[in-house]
Amino acid sequence: MSFTFWSGLSVLILTVPSNLPAATIYSTTLRGVNEVPPNGSPGTGSATVTLNGDMLSVNETFSGLTAPAAAAHIHCCVPPGVNAVVAVPFPGFPAATSGTYIQVFDLTLLSTYLPAFVSANGGTAASAEAALIAGLNGGLTYANIHNTPFPGGEIRGQLQAIPEPATAGLLLLGLTPIIAVARKRAKRE
Q1: CATH entry 2.60.40 includes domain 22-161
Q2: Dihedral sign, CA of 158, 119, 90, 43?
Q3: Are strands 141-147 and 69-76 parallel, antiparallel or unpaired?
Q4: What is the pLDDT of residue 108?
Q5: Where are the domains positioned within the chain?
Q6: Measuring CA to CA, which residue among 40, 45, 54 is closest to residue 72?
Q7: What percent of the chain has pLDDT over 90?
Q8: Where are the beta strands (DSSP E) in 53-113?
């Protein structure tokens, strides 16, 4: 395909308006070395958290824990390597050494948050939501899973935003000339 086609497609992707609010997706890999202090747990996991308006969707998978999970949650608002208060507990988290947890939280409800997090962040659901969203956007939140051998947490991962489609489109636009030059060189050889 020609350079003109790819350039045109890139511009089209970047100029198509969206009437829907964009969801922001955060993800992490959960490992024992990410805990504070680090541990040698063989457990692993992944968490994907999607913020769409006032709704927060959590999809977490885990395996290889040394004992059944006793609790799991999102902590906020600290940089990597620091422990923080629980912001959003995960009710009904599987008491197992491996599994999946999927839940949607309404961030406008006080019951979504641990009371200590609400108190530390203005005392209302709105102020807790604002603090959590600022923490998510600033890379200051982490997800982890606790159990009896590791009451402070067996596996943990700092949540990081995944670039939105517009950023991916800009990346594609920037790569288009590089791809075109590489193709021209490949045809000459």
Answers
A1: yes
A2: positive
A3: antiparallel
A4: 97
A5: 22-161
A6: 45
A7: 74
A8: 55-63, 69-76, 86-89, 99-106
